[in-house]
């Protein structure tokens, strides 16, 4: 009996595969590097859900991008650099739309490879900051903001709260001791000289569950006026708990946009109330796109959608990052032929000419969700903006205006760092028209 | 069947002491080597070469290094990750400070530098043994990683602390960074690892290797018969760190192409230690088998599960991978606590006696 059912199932599966073979419409391959396992899974799962749902939405609502269906393939990196490289090599194809590694460490490992393989690497709000300098990194895109911009915005916000001057104030940075956490240090060091604040660094070892001594030093010894945090995964909620334990005022504690989601504050309970973080886009579900997802992907079943993290900060982040990738595909189709399957090299052109104006954002259901992004050959950051959001114990609330970082100084710094990299690697920067 | 040794007579001590005294073994190893050099690069695709064979080779070298220390000399070490980091950062500094230096020389110098560090951290081994020494070598692990994380000099002041391998050539072929073709990377590694493994094999058969084994088996007895523990233990640390250092350099330059100190955390030390234990303590062959087992098996499990049913969620596959991998480690340790190399040895004995094994 068992054998019979097994045989039947096998035959059924075989027929399904055969039936699925014809009907070869144009398809675009979108590889997804996710992490649904390992210590960072609580953050990786909602991001991946956002990606998947956006792709399902585009396929269900619009029948793909100009009729080109999106097909995906996933690989679980576990936020582990070597597995990330393995996954990249496993999934890469000349027709891959773009890779989003969701990890600064993996980004560094892939930086050279993507230029060689001619596949865009889209690291929205993370990755190597100086890769925003397009002439040296033609295949890497960092829109809407980089970590250096984030650091700049945090300092701007703190300065505003302190009544316009940070002279003599103390700012501490609590960071994940990896490529990711170290990114903002040069910018904060530069700003500490320009603005006249004292800057203290507190590295936290992976995965970040042990922060007692760090916070005792912050709370009892250094007593900074502001604490900034570059954390990820369990490190965030641990930091919030420890900050509360030493009585550090939560509203002077600001996380980067990767330290400002529900999994970061909910485990800390009531202690997290008042904690702030930067936001790249609005939290919540009161957005056209989220309603569309609810309608087309979940058939209006809100309970089921919520089970899949619908409307949480990281889910919205996933939607947002995938929306930019899909818009780049759309832009590339404008340039290289609508309704066709494109190569990674052609989609790179789409990224580089992406101009998401207010109108275009509204057209894809993201009105007021984020600020316009305009990527050019020279500037792969695209001029995004961020705001400060605060946890009120129940949900994240936007509590400030949109901030634009001081881009002239930052761009000069990007260029300097990128050119140093080019020199070390023997890359000749291309010239932008 | 395979091992029909009729007519193989050894008439000299030299022939009796050869690495492979049995003709079939010699032919087998040469055939495997020839296959690895002449067939694999052209038969395997880039994915297999770059993400499976290259790390297997790099880890084999690291496992040989640790095997010399732990398997042959009996000094338990948890500092492997730190020593690999030394090799990686030394190679990086050498390669960027002297762009014209030959790549092989870069690795050898980095290896020598690491062996100096290894000797330094090996000094406590003269007083403490066993688990206590393992704890002492942990200091090396944490201290070294801290040094490379803390001082920007090691990374040429890279803001994120990530080093990235500059493109370098060997015999006119680029073998480092992503510019290199996977085939040239792989061939360079195969040759380098084969040569270093041959050196290691001969080293452990020599006087110095025998003194290591004497120390391992009973250090007081060894001392009484005239082996100086200082020289034996520190030379084991030096040679072991040399190999591990080169493996670290190869990891950064040839495998990933860019690396941060975080890649050489304590997990890496455990990973190499498990390779040595699973492969077989005190066996060069075991180092290779262990590396193959630890690197290949998780990926093979993952890919196989997805090949069986592509609709499995990747999260489920990843979790299953952990569970199956753990179960297999326990299975192999129960079947043969002395490692995979011992399993092969038993098999070989049976084959030699075939068809009448007893």
Automatic annotation (TrEMBL), chain A:
<keyword id="KW-0732">Signal</keyword>
<dbReference type="Pfam" id="PF13458">
    <property type="entry name" value="Peripla_BP_6"/>
</dbReference>
<protein>
    <submittedName>
        <fullName>Amino acid/amide ABC transporter substrate-binding protein, HAAT family</fullName>
    </submittedName>
</protein>
<feature type="domain" description="Leucine-binding protein">
    <location>
        <begin position="29"/>
        <end position="393"/>
    </location>
</feature>
<dbReference type="InterPro" id="IPR028081">
    <property type="entry name" value="Leu-bd"/>
</dbReference>
<feature type="signal peptide">
    <location>
        <begin position="1"/>
        <end position="25"/>
    </location>
</feature>
<dbReference type="InterPro" id="IPR028082">
    <property type="entry name" value="Peripla_BP_I"/>
</dbReference>
<comment type="similarity">
    <text>Belongs to the leucine-binding protein family.</text>
</comment>
TrEMBL record, chain B:
<keyword id="KW-0472">Membrane</keyword>
<feature type="transmembrane region" description="Helical">
    <location>
        <begin position="274"/>
        <end position="300"/>
    </location>
</feature>
<feature type="transmembrane region" description="Helical">
    <location>
        <begin position="76"/>
        <end position="95"/>
    </location>
</feature>
<protein>
    <submittedName>
        <fullName>Amino acid/amide ABC transporter membrane protein 2, HAAT family</fullName>
    </submittedName>
</protein>
<feature type="transmembrane region" description="Helical">
    <location>
        <begin position="50"/>
        <end position="69"/>
    </location>
</feature>
<feature type="transmembrane region" description="Helical">
    <location>
        <begin position="234"/>
        <end position="254"/>
    </location>
</feature>
<dbReference type="Pfam" id="PF02653">
    <property type="entry name" value="BPD_transp_2"/>
</dbReference>
<feature type="transmembrane region" description="Helical">
    <location>
        <begin position="312"/>
        <end position="335"/>
    </location>
</feature>
<keyword id="KW-1003">Cell membrane</keyword>
<dbReference type="GO" id="GO:0015658">
    <property type="term" value="F:branched-chain amino acid transmembrane transporter activity"/>
</dbReference>
<feature type="transmembrane region" description="Helical">
    <location>
        <begin position="101"/>
        <end position="123"/>
    </location>
</feature>
<dbReference type="InterPro" id="IPR043428">
    <property type="entry name" value="LivM-like"/>
</dbReference>
<dbReference type="GO" id="GO:0005886">
    <property type="term" value="C:plasma membrane"/>
</dbReference>
<keyword id="KW-0812">Transmembrane</keyword>
<keyword id="KW-1133">Transmembrane helix</keyword>
<feature type="transmembrane region" description="Helical">
    <location>
        <begin position="130"/>
        <end position="148"/>
    </location>
</feature>
<feature type="transmembrane region" description="Helical">
    <location>
        <begin position="186"/>
        <end position="204"/>
    </location>
</feature>
<dbReference type="InterPro" id="IPR001851">
    <property type="entry name" value="ABC_transp_permease"/>
</dbReference>
<feature type="transmembrane region" description="Helical">
    <location>
        <begin position="27"/>
        <end position="44"/>
    </location>
</feature>
């Amino acid at each position: 009996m068992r054998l019979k059912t097994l045989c039947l199932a096998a035959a059924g599966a075989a027929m399904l595969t055969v039936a699925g073979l014809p009907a070869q419409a144009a398809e675009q391959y979108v590889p997804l590097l996710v992490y649904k396992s390992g210590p960072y899974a609580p953050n990786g799962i909602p991001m991946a859900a956002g990606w998947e749902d956006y792709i399902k939405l585009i396929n269900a609502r619009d029948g793909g991008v100009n009729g080109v269906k999106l097909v995906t393939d996933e690989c679980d990196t576990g936020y582990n650099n070597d597995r990330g490289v393995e996954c990249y090599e496993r999934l890469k194809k000349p027709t891959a739309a773009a890779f989003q590694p969701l990890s600064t460490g993996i980004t560094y490992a892939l930086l050279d490879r993507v230029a060689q393989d001619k596949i865009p690497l889209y690291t929205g709000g993370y990755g190597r900051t100086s890769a925003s300098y397009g002439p040296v990194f033609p295949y890497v895109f960092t829109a809407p903001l980089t970590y250096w911009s984030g650091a700049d915005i945090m300092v701007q916000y703190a300065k505003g709260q302190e009544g316009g001057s940070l002279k003599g104030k103390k700012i501490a940075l609590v960071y994940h001791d990896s490529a990711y956490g170290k990114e903002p240090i040069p910018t904060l060091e530069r700003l500490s000289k320009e603005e006249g604040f004292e800057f203290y660094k507190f590295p936290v070892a992976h995965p970040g569950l042990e922060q007692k001594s760090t916070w005792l030093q912050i709370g009892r010894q250094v007593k900074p006026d502001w604490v900034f945090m570059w954390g990820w995964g369990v490190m965030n909620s641990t930091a919030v708990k420890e900050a509360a334990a030493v009585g550090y005022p939560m509203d002077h504690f600001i996380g980067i946009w990767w330290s400002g989601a529900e999994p970061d504050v909910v485990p800390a309970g009531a202690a997290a109330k008042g904690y702030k973080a930067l936001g790249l886009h609005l939290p919540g579900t009161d957005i056209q796109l989220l309603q569309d997802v609810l309608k087309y992907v979940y058939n209006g079943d809100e309970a089921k959608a919520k089970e899949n993290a619908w409307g949480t900060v990281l889910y919205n982040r996933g939607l947002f990052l995938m929306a930019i990738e899909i818009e780049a595909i759309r832009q590339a189709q404008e340039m290289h032929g609508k309704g066709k399957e494109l190569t990674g090299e052609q989609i790179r052109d789409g990224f580089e000419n992406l101009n998401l104006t207010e109108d275009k954002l509204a057209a894809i259901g993201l009105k007021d969700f984020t600020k316009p992004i305009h990527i050019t050959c020279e500037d792969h950051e695209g001029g995004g903006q961020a705001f400060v959001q605060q946890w009120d114990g129940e949900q994240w609330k936007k509590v400030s205006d949109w901030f634009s970082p001081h881009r002239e100084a930052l761009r000069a710094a990007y260029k300097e760092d990128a050119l140093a990299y080019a020199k070390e690697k023997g890359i000749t920067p291309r010239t932008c028209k | 069947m395979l091992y029909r040794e009729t007519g193989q007579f050894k008439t000299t001590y030299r022939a009796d002491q050869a690495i492979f005294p049995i003709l079939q073994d010699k032919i087998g190893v040469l055939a495997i080597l020839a296959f690895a050099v002449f067939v694999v690069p052209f038969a395997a695709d880039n994915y297999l070469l770059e993400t499976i064979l290259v790390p297997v080779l790099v880890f084999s070298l690291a496992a040989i290094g640790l095997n010399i220390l732990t398997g042959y000399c009996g000094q338990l070490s948890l500092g492997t990750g730190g020593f690999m980091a030394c090799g990686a950062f030394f190679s990086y500094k050498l390669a960027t400070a002297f762009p014209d230096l030959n790549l092989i020389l870069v690795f050898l110098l980095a290896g020598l530098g690491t062996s100096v560090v290894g000797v330094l951290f090996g000094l406590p081994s003269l007083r403490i043994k066993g688990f206590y020494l393992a704890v002492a070598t942990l200091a090396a692990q944490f201290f070294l990683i801290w040094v490379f994380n803390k001082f920007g000099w090691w990374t040429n002041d890279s803001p994120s602390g990530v080093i990235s391998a500059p493109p370098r050539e060997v015999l006119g072929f680029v073998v480092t960074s992503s510019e290199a073709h996977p085939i040239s990377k792989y061939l360079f590694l195969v040759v380098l690892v084969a040569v270093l493994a041959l050196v290691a094999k001969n080293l452990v058969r020599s006087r110095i290797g025998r003194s290591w084994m004497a120390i391992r088996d009973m250090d007081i007895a060894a001392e009484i018969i005239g082996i100086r523990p200082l020289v034996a233990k520190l030379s084991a640390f030096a040679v072991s760190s040399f190999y591990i250092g080169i493996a670290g350099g190869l990891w950064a330059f040839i495998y990933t192409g860019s690396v941060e100190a975080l890649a050489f955390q304590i997990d890496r030390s455990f990973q190499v230690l498990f390779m040595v234990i699973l492969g077989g303590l005190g066996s060069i062959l075991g180092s290779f088998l262990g590396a193959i087992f630890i690197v290949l098996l998780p990926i093979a499990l993952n890919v196989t599960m997805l090949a069986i049913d592509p609709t499995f969620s990747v999260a489920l596959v990843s979790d299953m991978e952990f569970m199956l991998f753990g179960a297999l480690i326990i299975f192999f340790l129960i079947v043969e606590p002395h490692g995979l190399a011992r399993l092969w040895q038993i098999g070989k004995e049976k084959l030699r006696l075939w068809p009448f094994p007893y």
